[in-house]
């Protein structure tokens, strides 16, 4: 059970188809860190990519307030520029938070082939993620057992079970992560990024942030405005929103995407949404059987509905899954939910949602109580009759009884004096609604944030079928051509 991850469209498609400073903050800079030379070599492991990909590790401080203290290692991946006239490194973060850049970067290579000609493609697993001290808060057995917990409790007994489960998850994270749990914030990772820039030998940071990666990019620009090079932020997180605001944004975004899907099938959005909401209520009362022998619960069904909304190519799959569920078979929705939850046929689960939770709970200071959330539920349900209840309750359960305090209500992204940052918004984006792009551009500051709009569907714009978007982004990254603020691609 988790809020819907702010993932890149490329990641979604991959799963469906198979204070300002330019220096080191907090104490004296450790020159041994900035002068380190990563030992780039062949990537290892059963899923290691072929081709020209190389892997290495970067040593960073556990606590950036003590840069000469204990260190941890971050996993890196790169592929050198394939052509001439190399510009430098182009660093990618694909979202989450909690997404593995080491795993995603090779999958994204064909989408950015033109950029690869003049940039070294670089990504990494942020601290607490994957091969960078990745945090696992629960065993596979415990994760599957928690599928029976109702994420939209209907009575006091279900509410207690929901909150007890949240407490148990937090305690598991604390036991697994130890002192790292207090040092996996977006700010910590932004500081890691600037060390990576120095170690790569780049004067400025050329960066492509997608989904949550846009929030990370905004925080980086705020901390290191003088180090900003050519930066693209695509599928933009609203930097003005607190945790409740993010949940409302997602309720709006996913309902908007669902409405567009329903229109595409010839249905009235209000009637179609009500039909789906009624189906979810029936599943809540009586989970559906599946071919695997597991039951499709209401929470799993909702997760299965969310998955195809990340990309328009997934809409036919949603039609088939809903039709089967109406007929009493939850198998297809369960398969989609398992995709989203990174559950393999063997029963092994990935840890993206674990990392997502430890990072966002360290970032988010706001911890709404169940009593407050109950008062907010009518607002959520008005925004979305399908997703509102889940996302409302999620604000109470996500960081309930969390072992460490949150750091801020919303990220600071103002970056006076930074080079222009290209902010790309998609009008049909479900996970990071379009309105966030303008707010990010405004937050970065006049002359810094430059907005580009795509009137399209799915999570993310670049590489999603718009020649206008792709050519505009490529011209900016390859030639430094900054488009007019407010440019629209149909």
Word description of this protein:
The structure is a single chain. By secondary structure, this protein is α/β, with parallel strands linked by helices. The chain has two domains: 6-135 and 184-240 and 410-489, Alpha/Beta hydrolase fold, catalytic domain (Rossmann fold, 3-Layer(aba) Sandwich); 140-180 and 242-397, no CATH class. It has 18 helices and 14 strands. The protein has helices spanning 9-17, 31-34, 101-107, 113-116, 140-145, 156-177, 186-200, 212-223, 243-264, 269-285, 298-309, 315-326, 331-340, 352-363, 370-383, 388-397, 435-444, 467-479; strands spanning 6-7, 41-42, 54-61, 71-79, 88-93, 95-96, 119-124, 205-210, 228-234, 288-289, 295-296, 421-428, 449-457, 487-489. The strands form three sheets. Strands 2-3-4-7-5-8-9-12-13-14 form a ten-stranded mixed β-sheet, with helices on both faces. A two-stranded antiparallel ribbon has the order 1-6. Helix 11 (298-309) packs antiparallel against helix 12 and helix 15 (370-383) runs antiparallel to helix 16. Residues 13-28 have low confidence and may be disordered.
Which properties best describe this structure?
490 residues; alpha/beta; Rossmann fold; 10-stranded mixed β-sheet; two-stranded antiparallel sheet; 18 helices; globular
